[in-house]
């Protein structure tokens, strides 16, 4: 394994870790790599250790909107362990980085022999869908400024960094808004001293202010993952 850790794997029992270990291999996920198409068969499960993956919905107009963000606290495609081998989302690498990977067949075989592992994966999938539901409510109810702050904070948590490499075009696409809207809000946040933005690089300057400005969806999603991972999840900073 690489040095970085996936918290979902860390939360497994020693028995389940030992059973799954031979099937895991380190991989590097390139930016914008499509891991799985919507309605496509899940062949590989990814456990990010430094990368971030966006689970997106693509509309008939060609627009894509992020439903959930998966990183070191989760997995991509874990539903394949219990015959959910058709992905409802397109999984696109948002932030390049390392991951552990195993075949869907291998994960299912190991999970079928462990009630605890199967239960953990089921709770994880419930958490991802809860995040997707929260995103839907967020889009319908909260303004762009609140949503952008929420999105940046979630990305920061998964990247373990106050510096994020994202273009305004990409963020706008994930939030389902116009680029000009993101530009205006980013300028406002920068003038308020919360972030510094230049050439596709966003630096979080005032974390507390950003948390105060984010909508309720950010702490709500954190609560979902805390309930799933328990003591494994690091304390909020």
Please provide a written account of the structure:
The chain is of the alpha+beta class and 237 residues long. The chain is 44% helix and 22% strand. The strands form 3 sheets. The chain has a 4-stranded antiparallel sheet with strand order 2-6-4-5. A 3-stranded antiparallel sheet has the order 1-7-3.
Topology overview:
Layout: H1 7-10, H2 14-20, E1 25-29, E2 34-36, E3 44-48, E4 52-58, E5 64-70, E6 90-95, E7 97-103, H3 104-112, H4 115-141, H5 144-159, E8 163-165, H6 168-175, H7 179-191, E9 195-198, E10 201-204, H8 207-213, H9 217-229
Antiparallel strand pairs: 1-7, 2-6, 3-7, 4-5, 4-6, 8-10, 9-10
Helix pairs in contact: 4-9, 5-8, 6-7
Provide the helix percentage. 40-55%
Widest sheet: strand ordering: 2-6-4-5
Report on the biggest sheet. 4 strands, antiparallel
Please provide the count of β strands. Answer: 10
